[in-house]
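Query structure, 129 tokens:
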């Protein structure tokens, strides 16, 4: 059996990920700077990327970020009721991953590893840990 490794995201997966994250960024009321930083893009690239028919390619890291953030959004929806589900990302948090800062700021500062830890943290909360 041939072992295939995808170097770049297929255009359709990339488009779906960008569209979903753009909707999440709106739901979370992220600033342009916050959304771009979470996606690991410049602000000008994020402006282009969230439009339909974006012609650029996303890196593996960027696709992992989008995937983790989409999963985090869904986990928050499942764990919390409105409006906390959408406000949680911007509320100061004394949990072990945050040291009193807002989760969005912690994830921007910590990059992909922190985004993945925050997603795992919320998934653990959902699981009763």
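Result returned for the query:
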């Amino acid at each position: 059996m041939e072992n295939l490794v995808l170097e770049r995201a297929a255009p359709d997966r990339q488009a779906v990920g960008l569209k979903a994250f753009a909707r999440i960024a709106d739901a979370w009321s992220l600033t342009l700077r916050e959304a771009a930083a979470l996606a690991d893009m410049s602000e000008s690239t994020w402006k282009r990327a969230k439009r339909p028919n974006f012609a650029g390619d996303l890196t593996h890291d960027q696709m992992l970020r989008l995937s983790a953030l989409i999963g985090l959004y869904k986990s928050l929806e499942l764990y919390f009721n409105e409006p906390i589900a959408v406000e949680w990302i911007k509320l100061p948090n004394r949990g072990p991953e945050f040291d009193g800062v807002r989760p969005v700021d912690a994830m921007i500062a910590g990059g992909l590893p922190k985004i993945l830890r925050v997603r795992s943290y919320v998934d653990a909360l959902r699981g009763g840990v």
